[in-house]
Amino acid sequence: MATYQATPVADIASIRDGLFAAYATGKTKDIAFRKEQLLQVAYMFQDNKQRFRDALAQDLARPPNETDFLEFVAIMEQSLKAYENVHKWAKPDSPAFSINTFPMRPRVYKEPKGVALIIGPFNYPLFCVFTPFIGAMAAGCAAAIKPSEMTPATAALVTELMPKYLDSRFYTVINGAVPETTALLDLQWDHIFFTGGGRVAKVVATAAAKYLTPTTLELGGKNPTIVDKDIDFDASARRILWGKTANAGQSCTAPDYIMVVGREAHDKLIAGFEKAYKTFYPNPDTQVDEMTHVVNAASFQRITGLLERTKGKIVLGGKTDASKNWISTTIVDGCSFDDALLESEVFGPVLSVVTVDSIEQAVAHVRKGDNPLGCYIFTRSQKNADYVRMNTTSGTFMVNETVIQAGIYGIPFGGIGPSGSGYSNGKYAFDTFTHLRGSLHLPGWMEKMMAFRYPPHTPKKLSQMKMLMRTIPYARPGSKPATPWGKLFASLAVVVGIVAAYRHKSK
């Protein structure tokens, strides 16, 4: 197993300068180079899958099937999709046709922002680092990644493998904790991508503001799960329980609390949890070896402290082992909105259940708090699903599922407000690290056509300028629709403009 070592603080500035110097060569702008490096990322994970499993088992006691599903599946998909599509993503765009501007040859070029800094979290130390990293590579950026020091075995393995698979002139790993991260943030970057908690995000954003550096923040929040009356309670309970069990609930998209509509639905849901729990853990004595542990003693103490303070009743789980930082998946029933478990994001395998009278009451509660990263409803009613979606704000929204949206290719993943800003995932990650550079290329013959803008300003020039200005072809709001004659005159005005433009061109 590779050994974790922090990068000397004294070396960080020179490492950063080396990345900027390498980027200045223009090599990363070459599409063939980008594709080569993207494919190498996929091979790095395919060739070393077992080593990564072992590292995450050492860091988080995570079972291999969770690592495969929660990390590898998405990374392989992201890297290969980027490899297959980057040549299309990077092609210049031509705006929609405009009679006034088409001779100017307007284009939008997709250019890399430059050198990116990507700061990763402990909970998904591969997925949450390499998804934005793949986007940065595809966009043509150079990048430094800073893995979490709380998953040292995984960080050490990434540090060992990256230079074996990728061009280390353009892509590097910097390890460390607060001193090293502070040194990184003291430097200027062209984009910073941070995944983590709100407290540290404010430090990152403040540091970025010093240089007006564009920043993406992937955070979290108290993700609500609303359970309707008429659903498949057994299937829904399995999906919700898995969302809280996977990675020991240490997911920014994990369901944080449940609002179930009505006492009858509540009883069916609890019965569904009991069935699912027995299916997941047929031998309770081995559960400690079959699920991920919380990351450290501080997290263990924080979560068990919430269990001590709650006024709800533990109906499933509740077992702990401080020597292993392990907390069993725990369902706490009979909670109220002022319970300790609903004060802030739990970020652990503890799920509270609140019974509400209606979906409207559940939505009203969601609207009182910060915008979460995920909002979930389990229902068979499209009307109810639409009501929740249209009356709440969250980074993502799912019906009859939890957690998995972060890894679904083709949709953006990101928060809003306190749950984050900006996007990752597929082309959205490419766009995050891309500067859209607008461009015009005017031919010489347009000089006469544009001469009206030059002083002295005369009535004739004003008349010529007015030909460029569109008139509104639509009825004023609240008035009668335009008559056919009005539409005809508007069409004639467009024709006159076209004829005038060609007359100027021919002179």
Automatic annotation (TrEMBL):
Domain Aldehyde dehydrogenase: 21-436
KW Transit peptide (keyword) present: no
Matches recorded under SUPFAM superfamilies: ALDH-like
UniProt keyword annotation of Oxidoreductase present: yes
Keywords in alphabetical order: Oxidoreductase
InterPro entries the record matches: Ald_DH/histidinol_DH, Ald_DH_C, Ald_DH_CS_GLU, Ald_DH_N, Aldehyde_DH_dom, Aldehyde_DH_NAD(P)
Sequence similarity: Belongs to the aldehyde dehydrogenase family.
Record's protein name: Aldehyde dehydrogenase
